[in-house]
Amino acid sequence: MTSSKKMPPSVMSSPDNQEKEVSSDSYSNWREYRRQLAWDMVQRGMEQKTVAELLDVTQAAVSQWVKRAREEGRAALEAKPTPERAKKLAKEHVDKLVDWLSEGAQAHGFGERWTTSSVAELIENRFGVEYHPAHVSRMLKQWGFVWVGISGWVVMQ
Fold first, then answer.
1. Are 38 and 62 in contact (CB under 8 A)?
2. H-helix or E-strand spanning residue 68
3. 54 conformational bin, left if phi > 0, alpha if psi -120 to 50, beta if neither
4. Over pLDDT 90: what percentage of the chain?
5. CB 2 within 8 A of CB 30
6. pLDDT digit string (tens) for 95-107?
7. What share of residues in the chain are helix, strand, coil (percent, to 5)?
8. Which residues contact 41 (CB under 8 A, 6 or more apart)?
9. How far is residue 9's CA from residue 25's CA, in Å, rounded to a whole number?
10. Is 91-155 a CATH 1.10.3470 domain?
């Protein structure tokens, strides 16, 4: 729900209990600002329906924000840090890995054959990137390897 409306500044209590005006420029996250503003408006006696209309959000959203703020305090309306994106193997790492896998598991201290678990361990040890063995299986197929039962993962010539 994007809106061209400029949100009005809000008044918040400062640590010394003096009220101060806070504008949207004070927040790095506009969604956080909107939640905080909704809370301030409800605290000043506005109906949730009116707040929702003014902020161009649903009444259910305002209700959830108010409930959260009442139960957990104003800090519950703050923006949460986004999780870091999982690392991926770079193209040059994939090329190097395929070379290592072609040399065989014993050449890299992993026993008689490559398993998805041993390949996942090699990737994590050498490149610092974690993959679930099931995903390693899909990647190996993409790179031209096939599972040959007793031989493990082998590259197709």
1. yes
2. helix 59-72
3. alpha
4. 43
5. no
6. 999 999 888 888 9
7. 55, 10, 40
8. 10, 50, 51, 54
9. 9
10. no
* Residues 44 and 51: beta-carbon distance below 8 Å: no
For the whole model, what pTM was predicted? 0.47
Plot region of 45 (φ>0 → left; ψ -120 to 50 → alpha; else → beta): left
Task: List the chain domain ranges.
Answer: 10-77, 91-155
Say how far apart CA 3 and CA 116 lie, in whole Å.
49
Tokens 């305090």 — which residue? Answer: 73
What span, in angstroms and rounded, lies between the C-alpha atoms of 77 and 72?
Answer: 9
Q: What is the mean pLDDT of the chain?
A: 81
pLDDT tens string 38-97: 999 999 999 999 999 999 999 999 999 999 999 999 999 998 877 776 678 888 899 999
Specify the pLDDT at position 29. Answer: 83
Better pLDDT: 25 or 154: 154
| Number of H-type helices and E-type strands within the chain | 6, 4
Instruction: Provide the 10 A C-beta neighbour count for residue 121.
Output: 17
